[in-house]
Amino acid sequence: MTEEYLTTEELAARIKYDVRTIRERLKDSVLLEGVHYIRPFGGRKILFVWGQIARDMGKPSIANVGIPMANGGVLHG
Fold first, then answer.
1. 9-40 tens-digit pLDDT
2. Full-model pTM
């Protein structure tokens, strides 16, 4: 199977985020090297793996999960 690779600009247009937001806030926090993007031939250029990003975009955010407490309750927030 051949993956579809996108530049930062192409990804921004596809997911409706600003290029700067992808570079500064998403890359290395929710978009991980080796999973969501690669650096072909060890260079500086970044290509995003569309198939993996599309699959992971629909997953629930960890922020929506509560922290379990010792008394059996859940901490939200």
1. 999 999 999 999 999 999 988 899 999 999 99
2. 0.74
- At position 36, the amino acid (one-letter code) is H
Report the C-alpha dihedral over residues 24, 30, 31, 36, rounded to 10 degrees. Answer: -170
Round the CA-based radius of gyration of the chain to a whole number and report it. 16
**Interatomic CA distance for residues 73 and 2, integer angstroms:** 46
Question: What is the residue whose two structure tokens read 């996108």?
Answer: 6
Q: How is residue 32 annotated by DSSP?
A: -
The pLDDT assigned to 54 comes to 95
Euclidean distance between the first and the last CA atom of the chain, given in angstroms as a whole number: 41
Whether the Cβ atoms of residue 52 and residue 36 lie closer than 8 Å to each other: yes
What distance lies between CA 46 and its chain's CA centroid? 13
- Widest pairwise Cα distance in the chain: 52
User: Token pair of 58, please?
Assistant: 């629909």
